[in-house]
Amino acid sequence: MRSYGALHNVNRKDCMTLPTAIKENDKLLMDIGRETFAVEANMVVGIVEANRLHLLPSIHAALPSEKRRLIKGVITQRGEVIIVIGLENLLGLPPAQEERPYKIAIIKKDAATLGIYVGKRELSFLWKEELANLEFKPSNENYTLGFIDLSGKKIRLLDWQTIMEEIQKAISSR
User: What's the pTM?
Assistant: First the structure.
C-alpha cells in the first residue's frame, strides 16, 4: 500500500500530501462518477493507494444483503483496520468502475475512521476564501448537508457524521 500522507499537490500522482495550512471550512473535492463531492478537508488524514481491498467474512456476512454493496473491503493503515466504502453504493448512484491501485481518502472524526474509494480521478481543494464567494444551499437529502454552487456545477457537501453512523449501524446489526 502506498501512502501519500497529507495532501499538498493533488494534481501530481506521486505527491499527495495535505497542505499544512488547511483551515476550518476548507473542502477536499472528489469526483466520483459524474458527481463532485466535498468533505471538510481537516477530516482527511491522508490519501492511500492499495493494490487490494480485503473482505473480512465476519463483517461481510453480518451485513444485510442490501447493505453488503456499501462496503468495498478493508485495508490496514498503521495497524488500524479501516473499512472502505463506495459513495455510489451509499447514495444510489451508478456503480463506479474500479481501477487498481485503489485510491482511498481516509476520513477521521473523533475515534471513527473510514476509507472512501475515490478511484483514479484527481482530487482538488476548495479553500475557505473561495467558498466565501459561493452560494451554499442546505439539503434534506440523505447523507448530504447541502450543495455548493460553483459556476453552475453542483458540489455535494457530505454529512460524514451520518455516513459513519450508517456504516457503524450496518456493521453492528448482526
Answer: 0.78
